[in-house]
Amino acid sequence: MTTTLGMRVLKALAVTLIVVWSLAPIVLGVTTSLSTQREVNEGPSHWFPHHPTTQAYRALIGGTTGEHSGGTVTQRGEFVQSMWVSAELALLSASLTLVVATMAAYAFGRLRFRFGGFLLAVLVGTMVVPIFVVVIALFKLMANAHLIDTKKGLVLVFVATLTPLATWLLYTQVREMPAEPEEAALIDGCRRWQAFVRVVIPQMSSGIAAVAAILALSVWGEFLIPLLLTQTQNAKPVTVLITEYVGKYTTNYPILAAGGVLALIPPALLALALNKRITGMLAGS
């Protein structure tokens, strides 16, 4: 009885520490975004602002000047445009990656062809190659193809880098699915492609939704690739734009925190909505 009570206390304490560790930066970001620059610079520091204000959010969305923002200059509509760019990149990259990865996972999991296992191992093995190793070659390739500072170029890079992960996750699900419904469809006269679309895809719907969320979150939080391949607002996502609010001599931390809070909302909502599917997919894999 004592052992059981002690284990419960330890589990509750561990969960509490994890929650505090995870939420403390978010709470600090929200309180900083509701503070003024003067309050942030005051010492000793405090968790909650004495006079909460939404001035940082108004300056971020509506635009401001360096005189009133501690050296941080924001243009009207600039942040909103970058949010839309991030959403567009996440949607397009996740959609195209799912198309490629779903067919590849089905081929590796169901079809028998020469060197299939070797090709799958090579594909999955590319995930261990850090982007820093190929960054110079990647930049030269994108420059020669005139894809620098374009959404098309970023989407192609994201699809190439995320397809191995998505294929591996979906391959595991394909291997675990029963083959009887698909075989029955083939016996009834369906071709392989028809059985894939009408039988396999509906069976994989839960896994596809989970992988789609993982891909979208990965693209939304990507920083290095957009930093290297974007120069103007045409294709600059919010993760890169926020770093530009750090001044050379001084930084308006409320505006910086407000940008982080707003950029956190879409992926947080997506993760909360599909939390069970994401957890189940990763646990199964």
Give an overview of the whole structure.
This protein has helices at 2-33, 37-41, 55-62, 78-110, 116-125, 131-144, 151-176, 180-187, 192-203, 205-220, 224-229, 238-243, 253-273, 275-284. 73% of the residues lie in helices and 0% in strands. It has one domain (81-284): MetI-like fold (Orthogonal Bundle), CATH 1.10.3720.10. The model is unreliable at 65-69 (pLDDT under 50). α1 packs across α13 (253-273). It has 14 helices and no strands. The chain is globular and about 75 Å long. By secondary structure, the protein is mainly α.
Task: Please render the helix and strand layout as text.
Layout: H1 2-33, H2 37-41, H3 55-62, H4 78-110, H5 116-125, H6 131-144, H7 151-176, H8 180-187, H9 192-203, H10 205-220, H11 224-229, H12 238-243, H13 253-273, H14 275-284
Helix content: over 70%
Class from helix and strand fractions: mainly alpha
pLDDT averaged residue by residue: 84
How many helical stretches?
14
In whole angstroms, the N-to-C terminal distance is 36 Å
Can you count the beta strands? Answer: 0
List the secondary-structure elements in sequence, H or E.
HHHHHHHHHHHHHH
Features:
285 residues; MetI-like fold; 14 helices
In short:
This protein is an all-alpha fold and 285 residues long. The chain has one domain (81-284): MetI-like fold, CATH 1.10.3720.10. Helices cover 73% and strands 0% of the residues.
